[in-house]
Design a protein that fits this description.
heterodimer; A: about 425 residues; alpha/beta; Urease, subunit C, domain 1; TIM Barrel; 8-stranded mixed β-sheet; 4-stranded parallel β-sheet; 19 strands; B: about 300 residues; 5-stranded parallel β-sheet; 13 helices; about 40% helix; globular
């Protein structure tokens, strides 16, 4: 196993409230010491050059192309993109082909993650067989096989009865239900957020209320059952207000969002830009501002990439026919840092949203610089400028909605269990 | 004249560009009525009518316009089945490039499809109706028809009635008429009005009695049967009772108000035959005639804008 001495870094560990200059020592792939200590002799050395060192990022919402859509992305290519983005742990959505609705498939995904040597894959279990929204999958067996939560991925759990049963059934073993909050009958066929722009473009639209209605329903069901519900990729002011109120009442309700929802608004789809077609759709500016506010006030627990690899052929279609989704692994950190540079988030909070908070939601040991923890580390220069260029991003999938975006803050090295996997 | 490369949408066009097209179309309208008429503006040019959606009148109108200007005109109907076989719009684009097409008229059931094609083909692309987005030549022919009968467009009040939500004709007309100084009103049930449509500078009404008061032009839209099966309107008879145009409803408008319809009409659903066929009040026949003239003008201008000489 690897030994390593990293010096001249700004150590930030949101879980421990640490933000101090110093060094970090890795022994046998684990963090042996950090801060100020006498450097041992004969250990390989990495000079940090004043960069920030934080726990490797934990991305709690990722679609992998594998299994089923290897033409879009393989686990190996996703791992490459993740490493370049400082991500060392990710949670994979189960709506692949086949869906992760069987314990063997959950084991398989974990093993495939280990094979990469650079990223831990925590599988989500399919809530229903085939993610079809009908019969519950074997949730306890999936839980035993390492599933970190249950969801039908990018499909909403439409039936209120099923949601109630799932919240009740999983409560004894602490299974969290991850909901894609979009009322399907209101969203049907829609591909842009409802409002003036969609009207001008003549696109079928999804009202913001489709999200709020689902959130309101599921908060009520969480209250009824005592179960834990987590809302993914929350994008509207209305839904965030409901989540804020539910948290204030002490309910077991959590939420994440993804960079597009705090960095872009609906105008990004102008000129029929299908690379900006996402699910949920990019919203109006007032919603974007509400997401920014909810990041700052703690309503949102985590920032996830909501990575969705797609091929050019999935996107080069008339807008309504193009597939929804964007890549996000390589840009997750930098886009979150844009909020820090913009003054809406402090750095420690931003990093907590990317490390300790999602790790806690997943029940993962990752996301910390505690002594004895695996040395999964991200080192980044806070002020280094770069530009997102579709076609030149790491990994196979290039469908970023951020093509051309100038960013400040870039990963310079990523370590998995003390081994350098990027930089 | 204009630097138009494609005609994809009315939104974003400037008043002088529109007026120039209308003026040229007006002269073609006069020429079309004269006995002897031969033009070779488009001689040696290839015009392809690429229709992914059924349409008789628009396709025929473009075909006639192209032939009157001397173009070689081909009609390609692409059925849904060949799309299902996996041929994409961009495959079609590369086929068309190989054929050295100069002018490409596209109708598609998807909003934005002509804009996507325009990025990939060498030809000048004319949007002949895309999904629920726009139908620019329809708005141009409507404006020309109004201008010829009323002598102007400024300060006229035009009511567009019916299924605005699913109408590309309505969108193009809203953009064009308000750009040229008309007051535009929309009348229809709330289920057929798109969100925040009032932000396009129009006034929205939900009864014919209110909406038609004092208008100069009543523009009816076609209500597709599908709207009823999808539950947006309970039945044809209820729709006609509330939003159909008959002589009694037309009496709410100005005494000299004129009636328009982009066709094809659903008689008895959105319009009563007595109104549709009244030569004093109905402009529907003239709209068809102006359609050819407007499309000649559009083809002419776009062909001039092309660098490639044949």
């Amino acid at each position: 196993m690897s030994d390593l001495l990293i010096t001249d870094v700004r150590l930030i560990d949101p879980a421990a409230g640490l933000d101090a200059p110093g060094s970090l020592l890795v022994r046998d792939g684990c963090i042996a010491d950090l801060g100020r200590f006498d450097p041992p002799e004969g250990v390989p050395h990495f000079a940090g050059g004043g960069a920030v060192l934080c726990p490797g990022l934990v991305d709690m919402r990722v679609s992998l192309g594998e299994p089923g859509f290897e033409y879009r992305e393989t686990i190996a290519s996703a791992a490459e993109a993740a490493a370049a983005g400082g991500i060392t742990t990710l949670a994979a959505l189960p709506d692949s082909a086949p869906a992760i609705d069987d314990p063997a498939l959950a084991y398989l995904l974990r093993a495939r993650g280990e094979e990469t040597g650079s990223v831990t894959i925590h599988p989500y279990g399919a809530l229903t067989r085939g993610c079809r929204g009908e019969d519950m999958a074997e949730l306890f067996l999936l839980h035993e096989a390492g599933a970190v939560g249950f969801t039908d991925g990018r499909r909403a759990i439409a039936s209120a009865r099923l949601m109630r049963l799932a919240l009740s059934y999983t409560r004894p073993f602490g299974g969290r239900i991850i909901q894609f909050a979009e009322e399907p009958s209101l969203a049907q066929g829609g591909c842009a957020t409802e409002g003036e722009l969609a009207t001008r473009l003549g696109l079928p639209a999804i009202p913001a209320a489709a999200e709020a209605i689902m959130v309101a329903r599921d908060i009520r069901l969480a209250e009824l059952t005592g179960g834990a519900v987590h809302f993914a990729s929350v994008s509207t002011a209305e839904a965030l207000a409901l989540i804020r109120a539910a948290k204030a009442r002490g309910l077991n309700v959590t939420a994440d969002t993804a960079p597009p929802y705090f960095d872009l608004n609906e105008t990004a789809i102008g000129n029929w830009r299908t690379y900006s077609k996402l699910s949920p759709p990019l919203r109006q500016e007032s919603d974007r501002q509400a997401v920014v506010a909810a990041l700052a006030d703690g309503t949102i627990d985590a920032v996830a990439s909501d990575h969705m690899p797609l091929d050019a052929d999935d996107k080069r279609l008339p807008f309504a026919q193009a597939s929804a989704g964007g890549t996000g692994l390589a840009t997750l950190l930098s886009l979150t840092l844009a909020q820090v540079h913009g003054g809406t988030l402090n750095l420690a909070h931003a990093l907590a949203l990317l490390t300790a908070r999602p790790a806690a939601l997943l029940g993962s040991p990752a996301g910390t610089l505690a002594k004895g923890a695996a040395a999964d580390l991200c080192i980044f220069q806070l002020d280094q400028a770069w530009q997102v260029i579709s076609g030149k991003l790491p990994g196979k999938a290039q469908n970023t909605p951020f093509d051309g975006r100038a960013l400040e803050g870039r990963v310079v090295a990523t370590f998995k269990a003390g081994r350098r996997v990027f930089g | 004249m204009s630097q138009l490369r494609h005609l994809l949408a009315i939104e974003g066009m400037h008043p002088p560009e529109i007026v120039q097209l209308l003026d040229l179309a007006e002269s073609y309208a006069l020429l079309n009525r004269s006995e002897k008429f031969q033009r070779d503006v488009l001689r040696g040019r290839t015009l392809i009518n690429l229709f992914f959606e059924d349409s008789t009148r628009t396709r025929t109108s473009f075909e006639l316009a192209g032939k009157r200007l001397g173009a070689d005109v081909l009609n390609m109907s692409v059925s849904a089945s060949s799309v299902n076989k996996g041929e994409t719009l961009l495959d079609t684009a590369s086929t068309l490039n190989a054929m050295n097409c100069d002018l490409l008229v596209v109708r598609h059931d998807q909003s934005g499809a002509p804009a996507l094609l325009a990025q990939k083909v060498d030809a000048a692309v004319i949007n002949a109706g895309d999904g629920t987005h726009e139908h620019p030549t329809q708005a141009l022919l409507d404006a020309l028809t109004i201008r010829r009968r009323k002598g102007r467009l400024e300060n006229l009040t035009v009511a567009i009635c019916g299924d605005v939500a699913h109408s590309r004709v309505a969108r193009s007309n809203i953009f064009l008429l308000s750009t040229l100084g008309c007051q535009v009103r929309l009348i229809g049930p709330p289920t057929l009005m798109p969100a925040e449509i009032d932000r396009l500078g129009v006034r929205v009404f939900h009864t014919m009695a209110e909406g038609l008061r004092g208008v100069d032009i009543v523009m009816m839209l076609r209500l597709q049967r599908e709207r009823m099966t999808r539950g947006l309107v309970p039945s044809a008879r209820e729709y006609f009772r509330c939003f159909g145009l008959d002589a009694a409803r037309l009496a709410f408008a100005k005494p000299d108000a004129l009636v328009m319809h982009p066709g094809p009409m659903n008689r008895g659903v959105e319009i009563d035959s007595a109104v549709a066929d009244d030569p004093e009040r109905s402009l529907i026949r003239e709209q068809v005639e102006m359609g050819v003239a407007v499309r000649m003008a559009v083809l002419d201008v776009l062909a001039r804008g092309q660098s490639r000489n044949v």
